[in-house]
Structure formats: C-alpha cells, structure tokens
Amino acid sequence: MEVAITEFRSALRAYVDRARSGEDVVLTERGLPVARLVAIDAAPLLEQLEREGVITATQAPRPRAAGAARAPATGPVADLVSAHRR
User: Fold this and answer.
1) Is 1-56 CATH 2.40.160.20?
2) Does the first or last residue of the chain, that is N or C, have fewer Cβ atoms within 10 Å of its Cβ?
3) What's the 3-state SS for the chain?
4) pLDDT band per the 50, 70, 90 thresholds, residue 32
5) In this predicted model, what pLDDT tens digit does every residue of 37-54 receive, in sequence order?
6) Strand pairing of 2-4 and 25-29?
7) Every domain of the chain and the residues it spans
8) CA distance 34 to 14
C-alpha cells in the first residue's frame, strides 16, 4: 500500500500495525515513493532468499560516457571547466 508522508505522520500507529501484520507500507512524497516500512521479520527472509540464490543484491555498473573523447587535464579542474564553457 502507498501512503503520503503527511497521512502517514497523522496515523503513524495504524500504519505501524499494518506493517507489523505483514503489509508493506510505501511512503510517498508528492506521489513518488521515498521509503518502505516493513515488519522486522522481513529482513531475515530477504537474507535467506539471498543465501538460497533466489534473489541477488547487486550494484548496477557505473554509467560511462560513450562516443566523447576525454578532455585532457593539465591543471586544476576549475580551469578545465572554464575552458569548456567558452
């Protein structure tokens, strides 16, 4: 279930009880999800699923610029930025 942070704040106890009973409560700010409230029992389940290979926790590879040559850096970065702005 999704709930706005302002609504969550006004009815905190009710949403904590819902999370305790196993429901995921997703907090939103201006319609965008920003946090999730889950029961404390959910953490061991995630760890177990990871050990069993059902899920994996990986970090996405760092994006790289494609097609552009690297600018040579022979001095301070500020000088380089100023030169490229001209």
Assistant:
1) no
2) C
3) CEEEHHHHHHCHHHHHHHHHCCCCEEEEECCEEEEEECCCCHHHHHHHHHHCCCCCCCCCCCCCCCCCCCCCCCCCHHHHHHHHHC
4) very high
5) 988 776 677 777 888 888
6) parallel
7) 1-56
8) 19
